[in-house]
Amino acid sequence: MATPQSTLPIRARRWAISGAALGVVVAVAGWAPAAWLASTLAAATNQRLLLADTRGSIWNGSARVILSPGAGSNDASELPQRLGWALRPAWIDGGLGVRLTLDQTCCVRPASPLTARLGMNRLTLRLPDTSPEQPWIRWPAGWLVGLGTPWNTVAPDGTIAISAQGFIFDGEGKTLRVQGIAQLELRDFSSRLAQLAPLGSYRLNLVGGAVPQLVLMTQQGPLQLSGQGSLGARPQFRGEATPAPGSEAALANLLNIIGRREGARSIISVG
């Protein structure tokens, strides 16, 4: 029969092994290369969003950011500069999460981190507070060509701007909750399918509430876009594109691609 004294070395060895294992885990996590993040992101997006030529670690790194139509495709497009990031563990709303700060001189507002809290089958994401006048992100619309059809046909030009005010996305299982507002703008949009340039500037708002709402509106331009939708149990969107008087012929090819034609209008329907 083991005595209390004889069990002490066994317990000590177990604690030593546990401590060593924890140390290895911490060391691996601390020095995990950025390439691990690239592999995870590629798998999660079915090879559509790629981090190439990665440098540094998952905590402090940079990469070339590429959009691709998917595995096996030779078509791709790249952001104009390398994208850097700093990822830090953080205690968020009483739970463990991460704080991500992006660094890209041309296109990302500095010192504007987003935060994410992870849980069992749950993700809470908070975007940094910015304004349409000083957005969080400004990326060239031409980057979307890398996704393939229909973007490579439309060949968009202009600027994609993203901003948010008090925006919190909370997803748990199939339940979705949204607070605040997020704005995606397409500014000075043009396309090789149209004989006019620019075609206009547009804003898509995601507005929080019991059922999050999508609202598409035209800010200016001969191509008029409008629509509404929701992100409830069954996401849906209905909208239309119409040419301003006198621009019907110049916009005909583009309207044929945007949606289903009904006379001069093009109907957009999702869900």
UniProtKB/TrEMBL annotation:
Which compartments does it reside in?
A: Cell inner membrane
GO cellular component term of the entry, any = type II protein secretion system complex
Q: Name one GO biological process term.
A: protein secretion by the type II secretion system
Ordered alphabetically, the record's keywords are: Cell inner membrane, Cell membrane, Membrane, Protein transport, Transmembrane, Transport
Pfam family, any one = T2SSN
Main location per the UniProt record: membrane
The source's domain of life comes to: Bacteria
- Transmembrane segments annotated in the record for this chain: none
Annotated family: Belongs to the GSP N family.
Q: What is this protein called?
A: Type II secretion system protein N
